[in-house]
Amino acid sequence: MDKTTNQALSAAVLKLLRPLVRVLLRHGMAYGSFAELARKAYVEEGFVHAKGGGKRPTVSSVSALTGLTRKETKRLRELDVLDDASSSQRYNRAIRVVSGWTSDARFQTGAGAPAVLPMEGEQCSFSALVKEYSGDIPPAAMLSVLQSSGTVVADAHGVTLHARAYLPSATPAEKLDILGTDVAELIDTIGHNLEADSAERYFQRKVSNVLVDPDAVPAFREFSTRKSQMLLEEYHAWLSGNEVDPEGAGETEPSYVAVGIYYSTYPGPGKDSP
Q: How far apart are CA 217 and CA 231, in angstroms?
């Protein structure tokens, strides 16, 4: 790596780490714990990278690649780090249920709005919606997840969709799971685009302005939230119409596809911007 590239990469990593470290400090993670996770990530990705060369990766080859000792590489490879897959599963399936409610005509009013659904029933019920879009998660469990986040309200009239997007609020762990999932996907996209030919690059754009009137920021936030939600629902409807049958034995292996939208604001240049 030449000096200019190394300087650019170092500056980018530092800029990336600052908001991450802010999150870690707020949640009490000391540097030692972060450093251990960083070393673990180096070892895991080192083995993946070594496989790409067509050779069988070894502790020695990964040690040479990462700069860690063979003893440390072996220890970190065997280190078990808790990965709460159940939290990710709840997050993804809750999103699917809400998205199905806002896009599937079977669960909407004649005007195309999400209908108030009875809890039980073969069709046009909350149980039927959950069965269609969340797999084997029981309807009562999904209702609890959506109620805890304020996404739905359940009463004698049925289950009402209160918010058109699911954002977990039950536990900090569920919120932090989004950090790991969504930020990793954004970095994966940027990493792909750094290496890919122009024709193979993924869509990666943003719009920003450093001269916005502070009094106009709340209005833009509301405007961008509304337009972004509409766009995401349109994407969901398209993706839902192009799914493979999960029950089809020997059929096409499904692919994972995601499009994310984020909003950011902070004081302009010369102040405490990231």
A: 21
Q: What does the alpha-carbon distance between residue 105 and residue 112 come to, in Å, rounded to a whole number?
A: 7
Please compute the mean of the pLDDT values over residues 174-200 and round it to a whole number: 91
Using an 8 Å Cβ cutoff, are 108 and 115 in contact? yes
pTM, two decimal places: 0.69
- pLDDT above 90 as % of the chain: 56
Whether residue 147 is contained in a domain is answered as yes
Residue-by-residue DSSP string for 13-37: HHHHHHHHHHHHHHTT--HHHHHHH
Classify residue 216: in a domain, yes or no: no
DSSP, residue by residue, 28-84: T--HHHHHHHHHHHHHHHHHHHHHTTTS---HHHHHHHH---HHHHHHHHH------
Q: Helix (H, G, I), strand (E, B), or coil: what is residue 105?
A: helix
Residue 261 lies in a domain: no
CA distance 174 to 199: 36
- How far the first Cα of the chain sits from its last, in Å, is 27
Task: Give CA 170 to chain center in angstroms.
Answer: 17
Phi–psi pair at 85, nearest 5 degrees: -65, -30
